From TrEMBL:
This is Uncharacterized protein. Residues 17-80 form the Fatty acid desaturase N-terminal domain. The chain crosses the membrane at residues 65-85, 180-198, 223-245. Belongs to the fatty acid desaturase type 1 family. GO terms for molecular function: oxidoreductase activity, acting on paired donors, with oxidation of a pair of donors resulting in the reduction of molecular oxygen to two molecules of water. One of its GO terms (cellular component) is membrane. It is found in: Membrane. Pathway: Lipid metabolism. InterPro entries: FA_desaturase_dom, FAS_N, Fatty_acid_desaturase. It comes from Miscanthus lutarioriparius.
Length: 391
């Protein structure tokens, strides 16, 4: 009888063990699901740096110049082919391809600005001016403002590009301004030239004027040099318009330039917005360089990854902008075990990153403003704005 009773209790004991085990798994699952990206990470930036292989920090000026030569050759070949064909069946393909190559030139000039192109300041400045002036960007003016962006990434008040509006700023916008920024995709993707001239809301100044509060007194000479180079490029375009006609310059340069601007605005926006996980923004003592950098997002651009020099591999770039672009993928793989869930694996793209257009459109519909108060804040949605759009 005793043996029988013990045998009969075994299934019940086994069930209890299963329930306890399941409860433990559920607790672990809840702990994982409760991950808060706004909390300080359990590692230091030195831990991430130590995980990156030593050779990833080495810069090769010859390798960098090879990428410049390659991209310039493609730009020249595309221009020559389009001019020779001079067909409206070819022009739209040319605009898309050449605009993408202008974007590739921008990323190389961007590396010059960070000093990841080479260890030579002179070489970085010469190449950066040539590349950025060609696409109508004042090299030093943009370099300095972009440095401010990296030094203050994800800080509500001090960040420089695509920083969020506070609720107070948002409520003061006129309906037309809200529509342009948050509902219509193409105006939102053509804001970069305006940013160069006027910066963003609440941040007066210009990338062209040495007197702008963007720049310190010792930087004014650099800004004047870059603005002069920009003016020379603009004068060259006007001269070509007089020689070959405005329409030809528009087809050869103007429309590819617009495609380039759309690439720049789309990519830079998605580096800091649009993830399904809410991304924190910081104020005051809650902000740190590491926590701000960890809010950035990697993106996969399919075939475009190699064309635009892996600029979508952005988390490691934001933490360590000195790493050359050709080492970013390897450095990211090495750092991922340290970053853990603070690294957001990018969605795998097809040959062309068409899925990112949907990500962008959704983000501008829901990421409207952050609270005026609080040191760790997240984007909020103005549902009334979306309701008006649907009407």
């Amino acid at each position: 009888m005793v043996t029988t009773r013990m045998t009969m209790r075994l299934p019940a004991d086994h069930q209890v063990e299963e329930v306890v085990a399941k409860g433990t798994e559920d607790d672990k699952s809840r702990q994982v699901d409760a991950f808060d990206a706004g909390k300080p990470p359990p590692f230091r930036i030195g831990d991430v740096r130590a995980a990156v292989p030593e050779h990833c920090w080495r810069k090769s000026p010859w390798r960098s110049l090879w990428y410049v030569a390659r991209d310039v050759a493609v730009v020249v070949a595309l221009g020559a082919a389009a001019a020779a064909a001079d067909s409206w069946a070819v022009w739209p393909l040319y605009w898309a391809a050449q605009g993408t190559m202008f974007w590739a030139l921008f990323t190389l000039g961007h590396d010059c600005g960070h000093g990841s192109f080479s260890d030579s300041r002179t070489l970085n400045s010469v190449v950066g001016h040539l590349l950025h002036s060609f696409i109508l960007i004042p090299y030093h003016g943009w370099r300095i403002s972009h440095r401010i962006h990296h030094q203050n990434h994800a800080h509500v008040d001090r960040d420089e590009s695509w920083l969020p509006l506070t609720e107070g700023q948002y409520r003061q916008l006129k309906p037309r301004a809200k529509k342009i920024r948050f509902t219509a995709p193409f105006p939102a993707l053509l804001l970069f030239p305006l940013y160069l001239f006027y910066r963003g809301p609440g941040k007066p100044g210009s990338h062209f004027l040495p007197s702008s509060e963007l720049f310190s007194p010792k930087e004014k000479g650099d800004v004047m040099l870059s603005t002069t180079c920009w003016c020379i490029m603009l004068a060259s375009l006007l001269a070509m318009a007089c020689a070959f006609g405005p329409l030809q310059v528009l087809k050869m340069y103007g429309l590819p330039y617009l495609v380039f601007v759309m690439w720049l605005d789309l990519v830079t926006y998605l580096h800091h917005h649009g993830h399904q996980e809410r991304l924190p923004w910081y104020r005051s003592e809650e902000w740190s360089y590491l926590r701000g950098g960890l809010t950035t997002v990697d993106r996969d651009y399919g075939w475009i990854n190699n064309i635009h020099h892996d600029i979508g591999t952005h988390v490691i770039h934001h933490l360590f902008p000195q790493i050359p672009h050709y080492h970013l993928v390897e450095a990211t793989k090495a750092a991922k075990p340290v970053l853990g869930r603070y690294y957001r694996e990018p969605h795998k793209s097809g040959p062309l990153p068409l899925h990112l257009l949907g990500v962008f459109l959704r983000s501008i519909r829901v990421n409207h403003f952050v609270s005026d108060h609080g040191d760790v804040v997240y984007y909020q949605t103005d549902h009334e704005q979306n309701h008006h759009k649907q009407k």
